[in-house]
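Long-time lurker. I teach an intro course on protein structure, and each term I like to show students one example going from raw sequence to a predicted 3D structure in token notation. This year I'd like something fresh instead of my usual example. Would anyone be willing to generate the tokens for the chain below so I can use it in lecture? Attribution to the forum is fine with me.
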Amino acid sequence: MKRVFCPKCDHQIAFDETKYKEGEVVAFVCPQCASQFKIKIGRKVIRTKSGQEKEIKEPDFSCGYITVIENNFAFKQQLPLVMGNNVIGRRNKDTDGVNVPIVTSDPSMGRKHCVIQVKQDKDGKLVYMLRDFPSLTGTFLGNQILGNKEIVRIKEGAVVTIGATTFILHTPGGEGDQKS
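-- Reply from a regular --
Happy to contribute to a lecture. Here you go:
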């Protein structure tokens, strides 16, 4: 199943992309706002509200990524991390400052819930630091809640829960031991 977002109201629409050929144009009517829009299967370009075309870049997993575990609120997602602060939270088209948006209907996940900072140590290895944004429901590493303003180092395989949603940290090459 592939998911697209309505360009007007940002409502998520799922469809079976295997029923269409590459290059085929598929028309949609948003069930939420009745807006009509089209997408081209296999196309790596989208049209913005101003009518300009914008190229969609392939995700870059060179700084690692998180895998969001599929649950009642969301489907499995793999979201790349970048050097610096990665603000993680619930995807909402009106929220600025989130560069790792999780598509979910989980009401217990904040729009800006936690931060994973990616930086290099003196040996050039990537280091991952986790902190709560702060959020209303807290950020859990394994089964331990992070304290107020607490920053912890996490490594490959760290299991983090924000609201009712869990994700796992993956580092390039799966290097390092695990703390969770």
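Some talking points for your students: The CA atoms of residues 111 and 164 lie 14 Å apart. The chain has a mean pLDDT of 86.
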